[in-house]
Amino acid sequence: MAPLYATMRSKFGAAPLGSLRSQLLRWLLIPLVLLVALNAVSVYDNALDAADMAYDRSLLASTRALAERVAIKDGKVVADVPYVALDSFETDTLGRIYYKVSGIDGETVSGFDDLPPVPANVPRSEAYPALVRFYHADYNGEQVRIAALLQPVYDDSMRGIALIQVGETLDARRGLSRKILVDTLLRQAVMVLAVASLVWFAVRLVLRPLMRLKIEVENRALNDLSDVDQALVHKEVRPLVAAMNGTMSRMHNLIASQRRFIADASHQLRTPLTVLKTQAELALRENDPDAMREIVRSIAATTDATVHLANRLLTLARVEHGSEAAGMAPVSLTAIVRQVGLEMALPAVQKQIDLSLDAADEALVDGQELMLHELVTNLVDNAIRYTPAGGKVALRVRVDGLKVQLDVEDSGCGIADDEREKVFTPFYRSSGALETNPGGTGLGLSIVREVAAQHHAVVSLASASAGPGLRVVICFDSAA
């Protein structure tokens, strides 16, 4: 579990993952709050535009009311504004209103003569069928909104355009703006709280199947490695459950393989240990020194065979349960075969076997050097064991494009065609091998196939090039 956790930390960051529920709530609610805030700003702006339009319409109505009282008398522009009208213009419950009537030549006819003039860059309002302009200005230290209306005036003696301006302080508008803002924020806050509650309950409801899956896995027996029902969770989580089932299936196969190995190993070791015990008991009862020496010699031979079997069993266990990806790197198969040839030269010389090597200068493969050494050692050891005295064992390494081929050919008893697949089964021995070397273990080719599988190599058996014998061919992918 520790390497897996370290791998996950390296891929997804140093900090451990927190609560899925809290992450879902954060990713749902934080964007929601931002969207609601943007919506509140938009609603507020729209409400202000509507309020400004309403107040501008009221301001225009006041301007038109004044325009109706503007006329020409005795060749002059006059404004007949009664005191009651002046009172209604000059005071207001929420703000103050100012007005000014200018004549044809720009002279002040009535009202506040210091009211700010119309800026030159203010366009005519397109919202109303009138020659009116709206603008903001500072007047007596306050911000005011002013409507400026051009009003035609004429009589029999003259005609022209009078300017009527009505300004209003922004107190009423600001009060309405604050009310709109408060109402908008209250409505949006209530909506956010309601949506947050719904999202919390929804997330809790959606994650309930994961909680059921957690309880189902926790309540399982230690030896229960059966598949988890994928119907317990949603469709999006089923690939995870499928991966869990695959992992448990591999664990089941691994445990079954270990049990099988232990059973086979105990069975295979029981016979030589029993023989050793029998030989020791015979030695204890024997008084003849020559006979005892012969028994001790048999004990030594049995011990050597038992040690060889134990080493093969340990090698097979290490190969079967090792990681095929650990320590993979480009290695020279030529150098490994040459090293094994030197190591096995003495047994070959003792049996008067011609051990030869024909190898490419540089044959690189991706692999684990120790495991490849074990593979070649098993092949050469088997070839020497099952080749009679005076025979030949040839080692060849060839590079063919993107492939590297290893051949180990001997002049021994060979393997019949119908047994060539069976000999890769642990402890299985061919009929020829039983006759040639009764004390073998039947593990050599099993180890070879396991190592080759970890290196994505293909193992095949064939007859020797000339005469009896066996040719083992292993084809690797080149690392060059």
TrEMBL record:
<dbReference type="InterPro" id="IPR036097">
    <property type="entry name" value="HisK_dim/P_sf"/>
</dbReference>
<protein>
    <recommendedName>
        <fullName>histidine kinase</fullName>
        <ecNumber>2.7.13.3</ecNumber>
    </recommendedName>
</protein>
<dbReference type="Pfam" id="PF08521">
    <property type="entry name" value="2CSK_N"/>
</dbReference>
<dbReference type="InterPro" id="IPR036890">
    <property type="entry name" value="HATPase_C_sf"/>
</dbReference>
<dbReference type="InterPro" id="IPR003594">
    <property type="entry name" value="HATPase_dom"/>
</dbReference>
<keyword id="KW-1133">Transmembrane helix</keyword>
<dbReference type="Pfam" id="PF02518">
    <property type="entry name" value="HATPase_c"/>
</dbReference>
<dbReference type="InterPro" id="IPR050428">
    <property type="entry name" value="TCS_sensor_his_kinase"/>
</dbReference>
<keyword id="KW-0597">Phosphoprotein</keyword>
<dbReference type="InterPro" id="IPR003661">
    <property type="entry name" value="HisK_dim/P_dom"/>
</dbReference>
<keyword id="KW-0472">Membrane</keyword>
<keyword id="KW-0808">Transferase</keyword>
<dbReference type="InterPro" id="IPR004358">
    <property type="entry name" value="Sig_transdc_His_kin-like_C"/>
</dbReference>
<keyword id="KW-0812">Transmembrane</keyword>
<feature type="transmembrane region" description="Helical">
    <location>
        <begin position="185"/>
        <end position="207"/>
    </location>
</feature>
<dbReference type="GO" id="GO:0000155">
    <property type="term" value="F:phosphorelay sensor kinase activity"/>
</dbReference>
<dbReference type="InterPro" id="IPR013727">
    <property type="entry name" value="2CSK_N"/>
</dbReference>
<dbReference type="GO" id="GO:0005886">
    <property type="term" value="C:plasma membrane"/>
</dbReference>
<keyword id="KW-0418">Kinase</keyword>
<feature type="domain" description="Histidine kinase">
    <location>
        <begin position="264"/>
        <end position="480"/>
    </location>
</feature>
<dbReference type="Pfam" id="PF00512">
    <property type="entry name" value="HisKA"/>
</dbReference>
<dbReference type="InterPro" id="IPR005467">
    <property type="entry name" value="His_kinase_dom"/>
</dbReference>
